Amino acid sequence: MKKIALLGALALSLLSPLTMAQEAKALRIGIEAAYPPFAYKTPDGNITGFDYDIGVALCEEMKVECKWIEQEFDGLIPALKVRKFDAVLSSMSITEERKRAVDFTGKYYATPAKLAMKSGAVMNDVATDLKGKKIGVQRSSVYDRYATDVFAPAGAEIVRYSSQNEVFLDLSAGRLDGTIADSVNIEDGFLKTDAGKGFAFVGPDFTEEKYFGEGQGIAVRKGDKALADKISAAILAIRENGKYKAIQDKYFSFDVYGK
After folding, report:
1. Cβ 196 vs Cβ 190: under 8 Å
2. Is the pLDDT confidence value at 10 over 70?
């Protein structure tokens, strides 16, 4: 029996380097799959969207396997810190505040924030036009922070939700007066749908770097420069070889990468 146990232990020790090598070829990516057109579920339950396709292309470029792990947006950074996954690819804006908690790759897209309200609504001056209005935001997003700092002092009531889809549901149902979010997400995920009929963009683009950062990037754990650099190089590679444009053209009719 001792010999069998010893042989078993020896076999495991011989297999462990192979197992470790296989694990090293997998990149565990955290994503919130409730943010169309960037990440959402197909009717059969599979994740799809711009973020997802970009992730697949990056993994192919780096010759690693993508392992996708779903997580609500406000839990993505905490889960990254406790090593539930290795990176976050979920339309996360690169801001100075977040840089204190995680490291980022270079951006992989950059689109402005917008406010959507009932068609015909006017917003010439935040300080007066939003007073008494209920504005829905996704909790812990850059839009939450901006609305809290700018809209709330103007007299708006900020209502927070776990996902932007929940915001759209309440906006359509008349429980909100408006929402601030990524312009593409609002347009494709709401205004172009039946639920979004009778709503429109109101006011200017919101692009203040203090709140909205320099674009959307992929987050890694603080200090993991090697992984951040590897993914950044892969982003540049898929932009150069045409894969990025092919994915972009699948979802958008304009350049989302920005300047």
Report:
1. yes
2. no
Q: Which residues contact 39 (CB under 8 A, 6 or more apart)?
A: 31, 32, 33, 47, 48, 49, 50, 51, 52, 90, 91
pLDDT in tens, 212-240: 999 999 999 999 999 999 999 999 999 99
CATH dotted code for 27-110+215-251: 3.40.190.10
Q: Which residues contact 221 (CB under 8 A, 6 or more apart)?
A: 80, 81, 83, 86, 102, 103
Cα angle value 11/17/22 (rounded, 5°): 115
Q: Do strands 216-221 and 102-104 pair parallel, antiparallel, or not at all (unpaired)?
A: antiparallel
Token representation of residue 251: 């979802």
What the block records as the tokens of 153 is 């002092």
How many residues does the structure list for the chain?
259
Residue 197 pLDDT > 80 = yes
What topology does CATH give the domain 113-211? D-Maltodextrin-Binding Protein; domain 2 (3.40.190)
